[in-house]
Amino acid sequence: MFPAGLTMGAAMRRSSLAGRLSFAAATRMAFRRVPVPPGRGFLSLSFDDIPLSAWTEGGPILSRHGLRASYYLSGDLCGKVFENREQYRQDDIADIIAAGHEIGSHLFHHVSTLTLSPNQMRREIALNDAFLKQAVGQDFMARSFAYPYGEISVAAKWLCNRRFLASRSVMPGLNSNGADAGQLRILPIDNIFAAETDIGAGIAAAARDGAWAILLAHGVDNTGHAFSCPPSRLEAVIERAMAAGLEILPVAEVMDRLTSSRS
Ligand SMILES: [Zn+2]
User: Fold this and answer.
1) Phi/psi class of residue 236: alpha, beta or left (left: φ > 0; alpha: ψ in -120 to 50)?
2) Could you tell me which residues come within 8 angstroms of residue 195 by beta carbon, excluding any fewer than 6 positions away?
3) Which of 73, 210, 237, 242 is deepest in the core (most CB within 10 A)?
4) Cα(169) to centroid of ligand 1, in Å?
5) CA of 20 to the centre of ligand 1 (A)
């Protein structure tokens, strides 16, 4: 959930040497690459966890612009308080889907994959799949994934590659031709990264180079929470991306486009 440095660094320090080695190896191996056609830029908006404001405040902004986003959800957080704030409620899940947004998986429990055995990882994916089937319908299967805390083990990457069309990391950057679909990069728009991230430059580069920019936020509110994006910032980046001519779609739908445009 966090780009390098700050909180992710703390989480990495808590993990074992084996975990750190697994992360280093996992991020160096690519099982599936993104065939981004040159000369065409995409933008995806993604929200992790999901704090209630990402839906109650973020949803109307998206709707006003006619946009659909990707919401990455951990079933265990439903109706709970996490990181000192209320998370999405059971009824929100159907509303998010009904509005045309993508719901992706963020594991059932919001845990680092570096702490899970391969069997535990399989179980976390399966538990979240079962949670979403119960919430949305038996036919529902999340199509993309986001690693909790952005922490990626070799086994997790392998399993997610088999189960999902694409997986999103928290590593900053754009997804250009040949990018790793098992650890898509992001541009963070939460408060904690506002000072160090030039979103305007990222959007301009995506449009210029025909790359895929994926924005990552958690809450959408004016609380000043480290992992929130003020509504005004979300509005501004959306308007900038639209003005730059980026095509704005959920993560799984960009993958569909890129895959079909290759054939
Ligand atoms: Zn998260």
Assistant:
1) alpha
2) none
3) 73
4) 10
5) 19
Centroid of ligand 1 to alpha carbon of 48 (angstroms): 5
- CATH code assigned to 6-262: 3.20.20.370
pTM over 0.90: yes
Radius of gyration over alpha carbons of the chain, in Å?
17
- Candidates 1, 28, 30, 27; CA nearest to 177 is 30
How far does the centroid of ligand 1 lie from the alpha carbon of residue 106, in Å? 7
Q: 86 CA distance to ligand 1 centroid (A)?
A: 14
Domain extents in the chain = 6-262
In tens, the pLDDT along 70-91 reads 999 999 999 999 999 999 999 9
Block residue for tokens 């830029």: 41
Model pLDDT for residues 11-49, shown as the tens digit of each residue: 554 567 888 888 888 888 887 888 776 667 999 999 999
